[in-house]
Amino acid sequence: PWVGPSPAPEPCPRALPPSPAPGPPQVIADGMGWCVARSTASSEIVETITEALTLSETPAPKKIARLFLVSDILHNAGTANVPGASSFRGHFQRTLPEMFESLHGCLMGLDSRMGVETMKDQVVKVLYIWQAWSLFPLSYLSRLERTLLHGAPDPAKPAAGAEPPADRGDDSDEDDVDGEPMYPPAAASAS
Question: What is the pTM of this model?
Answer without folding.
Answer: 0.69
